[in-house]
């Protein structure tokens, strides 16, 4: 069976990585130009956000043609060259399969609009209620109702996201065949990795009915039992034919028991899952557009719960802090002003040494932070702009609404990669589609010359490849009630005895020092320091360990 535990995946947002033709938009050739940089990290696979033909209303998550490259990003020949170039450095390709919905510009939707019955069955088309109101009271995740008028007919179509992203009806076997054929097409191009966008909302209840409240609403279309059937079928008819394939499902508002089923090898669904509970610990009352310090206890509790239960159930987690939908973790859970380097390394340690497959989002390895935008006109993300309008309509002042956008916008992490300290951050000779800021302080060139975060990531990646305790060990939490330390043990059972081989990981999540009292079992034992962001080289652990601001330490018991 494929070993998922010793792999590390790097995520590239093509629009923002490197612009080779100077039109202000990153492209596939740009990625090829930066192969040397990528190879330094020694990752196993790259997940690329969508670069298929798309009107880009949701930056490529609104696909109009699944089989072609959007000319903004290059050509099929560029893609083929990219696969070859990556193969040379032993890096696989993971593509983003956005199959819950397609763009309303897609041929399927256009044919449906023109009256073609076959294609009308690809979508959720429903009449208004008797009183003339929308088919259900569901809300789109980007704000506003989830229904839009279907051309000149009396029908409405469902869109859980933007109105230009029409939900596909997976109950229809033809839709599922289309999904498999898209995956198989890219497999034939040498692709072995697939990330499935919001895949757990493909099984809407057969009868679409009004919801009682927003939480109950999600249960009407999320994690329904039929999703497991769809995934088993997709697995069998596409990527499951390749024993080396790696798949990850993006699971919105999911549960541990479902995730065990999605990712358990014997279920033949997916290799692993992305879940988001740990990234909502800075939401006030579950509301994303709010500003509040993160709840450390909750964060710890969630990590412990997911790590332990996924381990017991035989499921497998994708481990990550950042992606293209999240503001930088460094701004949320670290201190980008006083301890940028130490807190970046501490966060990396905490996530990389857990059980699962780590993902690194481009720029994380140099400690990038949220841009310093001062105007709403700097933002382009559809979700952020909708949210801004909604916040103003709710009565917030423009300053308060703007502050929330600054804190939570998805554009925070979509800013072009900082390659150097020049005006366009070395990303393009032309004005970038999203403005970089702060490249004078944080950029690849300086980081490689005299920084330490990149080296630290390199070390974490190589540790996962050489240390079985990291790639295959079980997880046990420590100091559960400590208000500022997240600590755990990774262990492997030896000759039926627990805890014989073990690693201890200690991370201080705050800018003030603290002390932990080590349990007797750890005291005075000989250890080898695996990694320390303060260059500590401990060979023995005392009774008490002092952790400096954002200190991270991992030791292996000899
Ligand atoms: C999740 C993607 O990561 C996000 O960027 C996108 O807007 C939604 N799915 C809809 O496709």
From TrEMBL:
- Is Ligase set as a keyword in this record? no
GO annotation, cellular component aspect: cytoplasm
Q: Name one GO molecular function term.
A: alpha-amylase activity
Task: State the SUPFAM superfamilies in the record.
Answer: (Trans)glycosidases, Glycosyl hydrolase domain
A biological process (GO) of this protein is:
trehalose catabolic process
Tagged with keyword Hydrolase: yes
Q: Which residues form the Glycosyl hydrolase family 13 catalytic domain?
A: 11-414
Q: Which InterPro entries match?
A: GH, GH13_cat_dom, Glyco_hydro_b, Malt_amylase-like_C, O16G_dom_2, Trehalose_TreC
Cite the entry's keywords alphabetically: Glycosidase, Hydrolase
Q: What is its EC number?
A: 3.2.1.93
The record's section on NCBIfam families has: PRK10933.1, trehalose_treC
Family, as annotated: Belongs to the glycosyl hydrolase 13 family.
Descriptive protein name = Alpha,alpha-phosphotrehalase
């Amino acid at each position: 069976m494929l070993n998922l535990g010793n792999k590390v995946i790097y995520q590239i947002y093509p629009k923002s990585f490197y612009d080779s033709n100077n039109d202000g938009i990153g492209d596939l050739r740009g990625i090829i130009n930066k192969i040397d940089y990528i190879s330094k990290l020694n990752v196993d696979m790259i997940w690329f956000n969508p670069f298929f033909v798309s009107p880009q209303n949701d930056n490529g998550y609104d696909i109009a043609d699944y089989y072609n490259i959007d000319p903004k990003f290059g050509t099929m020949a560029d893609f083929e060259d990219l696969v070859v170039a990556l193969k040379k450095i032993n890096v696989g390709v993971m593509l983003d399969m956005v199959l819950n919905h397609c763009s309303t510009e897609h041929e399927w939707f256009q044919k449906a609009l023109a009256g073609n019955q076959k294609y009308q069955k690809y979508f959720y088309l429903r009449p208004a209620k008797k009183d003339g109101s929308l088919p259900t009271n569901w809300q789109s995740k980007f704000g506003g109702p989830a229904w839009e008028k279907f051309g000149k007919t009396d029908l409405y179509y469902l869109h859980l996201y933007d109105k230009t992203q029409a939900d596909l009806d997976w109950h229809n076997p033809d839709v599922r065949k289309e999904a498999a054929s898209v995956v198989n097409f890219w497999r034939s191009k040498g692709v072995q990795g697939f990330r499935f966008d919001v895949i757990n909302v493909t099984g809407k209840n057969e009868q679409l009915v009004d919801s009682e409240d927003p939480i109950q609403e999600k249960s009407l279309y999320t994690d329904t039992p039929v999703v497991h059937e769809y995934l088993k079928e997709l697995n069998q008819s596409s990527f499951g034919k390749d024993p080396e394939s790696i798949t990850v499902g993006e699971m919105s508002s999911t549960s541990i028991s479902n995730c065990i089923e999605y990712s358990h090898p014997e279920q033949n669904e997916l290799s692993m899952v992305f879940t988001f509970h740990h990234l909502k610990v800075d939401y006030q009352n579950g509301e994303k557009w709010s500003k509040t310090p993160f709840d450390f206890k909750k964060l710890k509790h969630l990590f412990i719960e997911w790590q332990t239960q996924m381990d017991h159930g035989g499921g497998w987690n994708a481990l990550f802090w950042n992606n293209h939908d999240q503001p930088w973790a460094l701004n949320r859970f670290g201190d980008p002003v006083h301890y940028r380097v130490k807190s970046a390394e501490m966060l990396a340690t905490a996530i990389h040494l857990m059980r699962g497959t780590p993902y690194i989002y481009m720029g994380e390895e140099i400690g990038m932070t949220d841009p310093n935008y001062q105007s709403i006109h700097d933002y382009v993300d559809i979700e952020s702009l909708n949210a801004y309008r909604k916040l103003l309509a709710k009565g917030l002042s423009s300053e308060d609404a703007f502050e929330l956008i600054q804190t939570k916008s998805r554009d925070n992490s979509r800013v072009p990669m900082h390659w150097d300290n020049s005006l366009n951050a070395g990303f393009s000779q032309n004005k970038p589609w999203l403005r970089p800021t702060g490249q004078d302080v944080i950029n690849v060139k300086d980081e490689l010359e005299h920084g330490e975060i990149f080296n630290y990531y390199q070390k974490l990646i190589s540790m996962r490849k050489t240390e079985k305790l990291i790639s295959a060990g079980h997880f046990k939490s420590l100091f559960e009630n400590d208000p500022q330390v997240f600590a755990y043990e990774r262990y492997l059972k030896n000759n039926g005895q627990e805890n014989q081989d073990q690693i201890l990981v200690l991370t201080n999540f705050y800018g003030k020092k603290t002390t932990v009292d080590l349990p007797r079992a750890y005291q005075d034992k000989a250890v080898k320091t695996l990694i320390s962001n303060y260059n500590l080289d401990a060979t023995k652990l005392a009774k008490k360990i002092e952790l400096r601001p954002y200190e991270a330490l991992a030791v292996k018991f000899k």
